[in-house]
TrEMBL record:
UniProt name for this protein: Stage V sporulation protein AE
Keyword Ribosomal protein: no
Top-level division of the source organism's lineage: Bacteria
Transmembrane regions: 6-24, 93-112
Alphabetized UniProt keyword annotations: Membrane, Transmembrane, Transmembrane helix
InterPro entries reported in the protein's UniProt record: Spore_V_AE (IPR014204), SpoVA (IPR005562)
Natural source organism: Virgibacillus phasianinus
PANTHER family associated with the record: STAGE V SPORULATION PROTEIN AC-RELATED (PTHR38450), STAGE V SPORULATION PROTEIN AEB (PTHR38450:SF2)
Length: 116
């Protein structure tokens, strides 16, 4: 049943993004930013973690999870280190994913040379 709910919740997040493109005529950058902020706000109210527990990858894979990670890391480090922890916590939690994206993107660019 977890696969079903992951599909449904992930699909709903994607449908919301598509509606933002089609109906509101937002650019990809605006849509991306809004979804990240929505994920951050949901985590700030303590609603995103229960959604991840319920839907698994359906909630942890979409871009809204990035906003969740930013706030989650900032709050955890703020408890330990105060105001400076807010800034360092965001980088600490998300740095491995961003670093991996850069490294794998570079490897892909080296292996698969673009034509043009």
């Amino acid at each position: 049943m977890i696969f079903f709910w992951a599909f449904v919740i992930g699909g709903i997040i994607c449908v919301i993004g598509q509606i933002m493109f089609d109906v509101f005529k937002l650019t990809p950058g605006h849509t991306l930013s809004i979804l990240v902020v929505v994920g951050a706000i949901l985590d700030g109210f303590g609603l995103y973690e229960p959604l991840i527990d319920f839907a698994g990858a359906g909630a942890s894979v979409p871009i809204t999870s990035f906003g969740n990670s930013l706030v989650h890391g900032a709050m955890a480090e703020a408890e330990k280190h105060g105001l400076i922890g807010v800034v360092t916590g965001m980088f600490e939690v998300t740095s491995s994913g961003i670093s991996a994206a850069i490294i794998f993107g570079m490897i892909g660019a080296i292996i698969f040379r673009p034509k043009g």
